[in-house]
Amino acid sequence: MHFTSLLLLLGVPSVLAKCRCTPTDDCWPSVSKWKGLNGTVHGHLIANEPLAKPCYDGLGKNSTQCQKISKIYQDAFFWEASPIGFAYPVVDTCAPINGSIAGSPVCDLGSASVYSVNATKPADNTGHDVRARSQGYGSLSIWMKHIKPELQFQEKYQPSNSSCQSNWTGSAIVVGAGYIWNEVYTFAAKYDHIAVGGSSKLLTVGAVGGYRQGGGHGPASHDFGLAADQVLEFKVVLTSGEVVTASACEHIDLFTALRGGGGGTFGVVVSATIKFFLNTPSSRMQVSSGNGQLNRVLGTKSAYSHNFGKMLSRNSSSFNSSSEIEEAKRVINKQVVEFLRPLNGTKLSVISTFEKYDTFQDYFDGGNHESPASNNPSPVMVSRFFDKKSLVNNHKSLTAMFQAIFSQSASKIQAVKQKYDPDGVFWCYRCVGYEGWEEITGPTLYGPLCQTK
To answer: What is the pLDDT of residue 112?
Structure first.
């Protein structure tokens, strides 16, 4: 990737308004400049168009195509095939409509990127963000979906820099930025291993991007920790265009920031080397409750549903395995089911089920691991890390803990941001270094990015 050319277009300022340029501004790069960038990236620049444009009046209107799009508009396969296909679009300015009706409303890109670079070599990761931080009005995105070099399994981890030493003596895998968790899990199963990753079976969760760089938790986290803790190396393209390796040995400050500091903030991560663990049997416990009236109101199969996954001991006897399952049942019954059980016999029913799988891959393939509430157009998402008692009864202690954590790390991570992205090329809401800029929105709920001071 030639990031020098990208910098000239990404950060073009509007001097009078102190805002980043948007497509309606005179300072917006000319067509010839975009053509020049397209030549620089070897013809991989995509001029994005709304996905449902064939449904609207104007050039490109096509009723037949509109009907096809309408049928698959909510399909993950459809979204992941486009650089502006977002799983959780906060503002959808061009949803499918009845294309046969004359006088349709205006269809535009809204907060989606105007152009995207289709990165196919180490040059927007695949994925989604419920806060729409992977979108930006008038922005240029880098589409990482096709960065898929062959997955590399290492029986024993070997640092890419032979002069570096590592405390990790187990297995590892080198994963390109375009891979999703289903692909990584399937590859791991061939070697009888597992990785710490997400539980979603959708095609939108990347194994390297914001999920991992933001922390990342999943079914195996109780046994092995967060996804960010599993990284041994990152390969990163900096705004200068330099490709560097960040590890516990090289660019240590960048390595630290990338493991929890948020995706797309310090540079473009094109691959990660992560730890692999030996496969284990797994169990799944599902607890749900609901009634017909709540289902109609919430648009879900149940008012409450949660899957509890557990890794069982590898090569354990059937007796030990059964003991682990019984202990898991006891904990779930005590902590969750017994709390809900008094509601049985009322209009609210409570159901709990337990299943055992021979391998983690069987567990992952065995069903949907998401709450049915995720199918709701307006899901309510809650934290699973702190219960109500912890949040309400220990408010002062919890506040003091967060203040201690962030006060110690904030200045350090800000310094890393300034060091590796001094011009603020990478910006997203509530990300490291977002201070001083704000998206000025109006009735459209999106707008230009402007300085606040």
So the answer is: 86
